Amino acid sequence: MQTALLVIDVQRALCSGEYKAFQSERVIERINSVARKMRLVGAPVIMIQHESMNGPLDFETDGWKLAEGLEVLSTDILMRKKATDSFHQTELHALLQERGVQDLIICGLQSEFCVDTTTRRALALGYPVVLIADGHSTLNNSIQSAAQISAHHNETLANISSFGPRVKAIPASEVRVEA
């Protein structure tokens, strides 16, 4: 399969409580719909979990676990990371190369951190990216609402051309996966 799905940081601490991302339940529903499409054609679904030290995402704590409602199957690949870039000091790139993956579908949390950084790194490594436009989210900040931040990243990432490969930001309902 030439396409893989990266589900970034859809973890309990980022989907409930103090750090709950905007519309996280709807984002999870959209991610689940795309993951189902991927699994039907045998494409890799990679669940990436961020881990911190002395924070809400400490390894193996309740907040670190994948979010309630996120559909995870035994065939999915689980991967841990410690940086905003899912490729940084992880086996992700090697894993994708071993499987012959040539392009990525990216979704998850948070739009301006791990989703943005991983998407840019994917482009730098030569992967064209479909960004699920309604499949990533974040929190409000002092300047913009979460919805504005996510919309900004859809627009900005889709306009990066300097790497060669491009980002196409589309809603989950328009994601097509072929065997």
Walk me through the structure.
There is one protein chain. A six-stranded parallel sheet has the order 3-2-1-4-5-6, with helices on both faces. The protein has helices at 12-15, 24-40, 92-98, 111-124, 146-158, and strands at 3-8, 45-50, 77-81, 103-109, 129-137, 167-170. α5 links the parallel β5 (129-137) and β6. α4 packs parallel to α5. It is of the alpha/beta class and 179 residues long. The protein has a single domain, classed as Rossmann fold (3-Layer(aba) Sandwich), CATH 3.40.50. The model has no long low-confidence stretch (mean pLDDT 97). The chain is globular and about 40 Å long. The chain is built from five helices and six strands, in the order βααββαβαβαβ. Helices cover 31% and strands 21% of the residues.
Structural class: alpha/beta
Q: What is the total tally of β strands?
A: 6
- Strands of the widest sheet, in order across it, are 3-2-1-4-5-6
* C-alpha geometry: globular
β-strand amount: 15-25%
Please tell me the total number of domains.
1
The CATH topology annotation reads as Rossmann fold
| Number of helices, where a helix is a run of at least 4 consecutive DSSP H or I residues | 5
Q: Give unreliable regions as ranges.
A: none
Helix content: 25-40%
Helix and strand run? EHHEEHEHEHE
CATH superfamily: Isochorismatase-like
Largest sheet: 6 strands, parallel
| Average predicted local confidence, pLDDT | 97
Per CATH, the class reads Alpha Beta
Instruction: Tell me the CATH architecture.
Output: 3-Layer(aba) Sandwich
